[in-house]
Amino acid sequence: MVKIRLQFEIDSNNGTREDSSDVPIIDQTSTNNESIVSVSEVLENSLASDDSTITSETNMHCPIFVNNGKKSLATTTVKRNGLVGLKDGSKNDGTVRMKRQIGLIGGIAMIIGTMIGSGIFISPTGVFQRVDGSVGVSLVVWIACGLLSTLTAVTYIELGTVVPRSGGEHAYFMAAFAPLHQFWGEIPAFLFAFMTVTLLKPSALAILSLSFGEYTILPILNGLGTCENWKKNSKDYEFGHKLLAIVCALFVATINIYSAKLSARVQIVFTVAKLIACALVIGIGLYNLSIGEFGSLPNSFDMSENTSYSSVALAFYSGLWSYDGWNNLNYLTEELIDPNRNLPLAIFIGIPLVTILYTFMNISYFTVLSKVELMTKEPVGIRLGDRMLGTLSFIIPVLVALSVYGTANGSQYTAGRISYVAARDGHLVDVLSYVHIKRLTPSVAILLNVDVNSYCLHFFQ
């Protein structure tokens, strides 16, 4: 892929625009500024390279005629082997696109913030049940899930740097298959975009919003002394639960529409809240170990005779669900500052850190709760707080609610980019590719996701 950035010189006396590829240009990268070449020669020489992964950028002067009579920056995008590269231009280039404004810290926050949701406070029960109560095997599964996520993310590092486009899998399907056939080659990318935009992302946001509503209302009802039967059977509880979910979804959408930079900063703030929640749980475990309370840890690798390889494989499903979100940064490649550097660094810092946190959090659960308690359906994080924090136990559900909100924010951020890129490539209606002219956010795509999410909330119990 070759990206050519052109500096245009304007003749205000002419109202036409010259787009010929044979317009003479001065190559500013040369020490001899008088060397004259043509656009076609530059493209021919650049495209002659056998290495399709090389990205070259050339700054050039080009005489061109537009109506406003002012100098401006513009972007010429050249297709090569089915890949399309985009380069930020100035606001005067006649195009509107999102800015590169996510740095390394923002990238790490996007990965950690979307991976750590409510899963680590719930999934340990699912993993523990499927390994028939073996503490050691459960810990091995959690570590293996983190290793598997890291190795898979390594492939996405290569894809994200070779195909530097937003949209994640949609962009990679286009790069791999679109050149093979004019129609059928784009079908995989279209199917992925269609299923993601209409089902996967809206339903994911609905689940996260409902989880936010549940963990937000839980400490309030507990403080009021409401009985458990009322929570399960009252229509008022269901209404309040879903109302909070709708408020969460709308608030997330509003922030993402208002400013991409603000949304990225919100992601950083709520990622810090997640890390505080994880640190609190780990701190409880370390305290127990320091006073000699080992809970379920002794004889960790005692296994039931009924344990099988198939049950251990099923445990991976619960574990990997908690690691979901490791690929979200690949949906934002065009907004990532220096993606060749920051994408690999964010992945290699974020995913191993989450793996370490998950492992130590599980050890903390084992130091506090018995094997019987770990088998129950009640979220282990809430049970741990009730056991160890006493009157301050409300802190855990509050931190979980903040954690879920951060995940919802990251999910909404990426959902809008998938719709935007798919529409830009002609796979969805054009209006979804519209970017707000001042805020530079894909407003219509974000509104679509939250609208479909409202329908999901209506059907979810």
Structure explained in plain terms:
The protein is an alpha+beta fold and 461 residues long. Helix content is 59%, strand content 7%. The chain has a five-stranded mixed sheet, covered by helices on one side. Helix 8 packs across helix 14. It starts with a strand and ends with a helix.
**Low-pLDDT segments:** 1-93
- The radius of gyration is 26 Å
Number of strands: 5
Please write the string of helix (H) and strand (E) elements.
Answer: EEEHEEHHHHHHHHHHHHHH
Overall mean pLDDT score? 77
Helix fraction? 55-70%
Using the alpha-carbon principal axes, give the shape.
Answer: globular
Describe the protein's topology:
Blueprint: E1 2-10, E2 24-27, E3 36-38, H1 39-47, E4 56-64, E5 73-78, H2 104-115, H3 123-130, H4 135-162, H5 169-177, H6 187-224, H7 228-233, H8 235-258, H9 260-290, H10 309-322, H11 339-368, H12 371-375, H13 380-388, H14 395-424, H15 443-459
Parallel strand pairs: 1-4
Antiparallel strand pairs: 1-5, 2-3, 2-4
Helix pairs in contact: 2-9, 2-11, 2-14, 3-10, 4-10, 4-11, 5-6, 6-8, 6-14, 6-15, 8-14, 8-15, 9-11, 9-14, 14-15
